[in-house]
Design brief:
The radius of gyration is 15 Å and the shape is globular. Strands 1, 2, 3, 4, 5, 6, 7, 8, 9 and 10 form a ten-stranded antiparallel beta sheet that branches. The chain has one domain. It has about 160 residues and is mainly beta.
Amino acid sequence: MKNDRIAKGFFNVQCFDKDGQLKWTRDLPNGIVDVGIENLLDATFNGGTQISTWYMGLINNASFSALAAADTMASHAGWAETASYDEATRPEWTAGAAATRAVTNSSTVDFTMSATVTVKGIFVTSNNTKSGTGGTLWSTAAFASNASTTDGDVLRVTYTVSG
């Protein structure tokens, strides 16, 4: 049996208005960036340090051009993070136990939007600092169509990693 992939991920994002009404839903697969796969391989097979806490951030549609496998937290020329949400830091992705070759967060990762902004996508990183450039980037994903939000909207994100 040949398996050409190590891991893949999938985001489900729901946007609720300030009254709790569902505005839109987006599903999107993500790309695992090079440094993410290298970290996974080092931690699993080469005695590298495991990253045990992961966080999510939002990619701004403004000036977006592309995601790249070579993106890192310090260098991602095709996109910028939006910090237009109320949480003081990037929210933590808390994984449940692995089962049937997958792991999913045990509760949604929520972003309470603090402005009108068009969100282009999502990323997963090991650093919780909003707009920070440190840490290890694991994955990135872009919406196929614009995802508009307004002040008070809540984005609820479920993320699944599988192998």
